[in-house]
UniProtKB/TrEMBL annotation:
GO CC, alphabetical: mitochondrial inner membrane; proton-transporting ATP synthase complex
Entry membrane topology: Multi-pass membrane protein
Keyword Membrane: yes
Residues annotated as transmembrane: 20-39, 71-93, 99-119, 126-145, 157-175, 187-215
Principal location listed in the UniProt entry: membrane
Matching Pfam families: ATP-synt_A
Identification of the protein by name: ATP synthase subunit a
Compartments in which it is found: Membrane; Mitochondrion inner membrane
Complex and partners: F-type ATPases have 2 components, CF(1) - the catalytic core - and CF(0) - the membrane proton channel. CF(1) has five subunits: alpha(3), beta(3), gamma(1), delta(1), epsilon(1). CF(0) has three main subunits: a, b and c.
GO molecular function, one term: proton-transporting ATP synthase activity, rotational mechanism
Family: Belongs to the ATPase A chain family.
Keyword set, alphabetical order: ATP synthesis, CF(0), Hydrogen ion transport, Ion transport, Membrane, Mitochondrion, Transmembrane, Transmembrane helix, Transport
Species this protein is from: Loxostege aeruginalis
Function comment: Mitochondrial membrane ATP synthase (F(1)F(0) ATP synthase or Complex V) produces ATP from ADP in the presence of a proton gradient across the membrane which is generated by electron transport complexes of the respiratory chain. F-type ATPases consist of two structural domains, F(1) - containing the extramembraneous catalytic core and F(0) - containing the membrane proton channel, linked together by a central stalk and a peripheral stalk. During catalysis, ATP synthesis in the catalytic domain of F(1) is coupled via a rotary mechanism of the central stalk subunits to proton translocation.
Amino acid sequence: MMTNLFSIFDPSTNLLNLPLNWISTFIGLMFIPYSFWLIPNRHLFFWNFILNSLHKEFKTLLGKNSNGSTFIFISMFTFVLFNNFLGLFPYIFTSTSHLTLSLSISLPLWLSFMFYGWINNTQHMFIHMIPQGTPGILMPFMVLIETISNIIRPGTLAVRLTANMIAGHLLMTLLSGTGPNMSSYFIILLVVVQILLLILESAVAIIQSYVIAILSTLYSSEVN
């Protein structure tokens, strides 16, 4: 039962032993009309409002001389949000429910932050390991705790995104599988519950995109 349940997250379309489901991660960008970006409309204004709000927030966290850096995290937010929403449509592969994708996003970013921090701001990185006012006897333990906390950051970013996307999809799959065994009254109730779950999953898709972007921004600000 559990194997069949989790098989909804497996890449199932293959050509020459290559899983084509992963193409859905990028192919959606081809269907965005070119005129959408050129002709002013309410959707474009709303999207620009979101991007400008994120830019201002990320700029506050990163500092005044970080205009270019904010676009990295805005692009991450857009990419994760697009794939989260894409997975809510029927018969479309949910790439963000796999650690393969989420680790591919979080691990290179974390490594780049660490290399930059230890090479350019070595003293700051050492200072950051010991909070101000820590008793001398606790300093070795604080260094160990901070080191472990730093090492697991890419894993927690990846697992947080993957687990949240898997949980909602599994719940919707479990509920939809009980439909054939219910009476017509309960089927109507089930449809209402599924719609509410879909709304909840849409909110989760937005929140998780924001969380991974804002945490990455915070990690970046710590090495500067």
